[in-house]
Amino acid sequence: MRIRAAGIALASLLVLSAAACRDPGPAEQAGREIDEAAEDARDSLDRFGREIEEALEDAKEELD
Q1: What percent of the chain has pLDDT over 70?
Q2: What does residue 37 show for φ and ψ, rounded to 5 degrees?
Q3: Cα–Cα distances in angstroms (integers) from residue 39 to residues 24, 26, 27, 51, 53, in the given order
């Protein structure tokens, strides 16, 4: 009987701890927001770099 009760208690703890892990905490949410901001910044810099390259190519063509 005690083993069964201990098993049920352990299973309950595992279920509750798994459910608690589903909701992101404030640090995890902040980390995700930082990751998204970094990705956005990288994408913006990539676009800016392509625009600079195109402008340089256009300027080179005008000089030739």
Answers
A1: 84
A2: -65, -40
A3: 20, 20, 18, 18, 21
19 contacts: CB under 8 Å, gap ≥ 6: none
Q: How far apart are the C-alpha atoms of 30 and 11, rounded to whole Å?
A: 31
Using DSSP's 3-state secondary structure scheme, residue 21 falls into coil
**Taking the model in full, what pTM does it have?**
0.55
**Model confidence band, residue 21 (pLDDT cutoffs 50, 70, 90):** low
**How far is residue 41 from each of residues 22, 28, 47, measured CA to CA in Å?**
28, 20, 10
CA-based nearest residue to 3, from 11, 61, 31, 13: 11
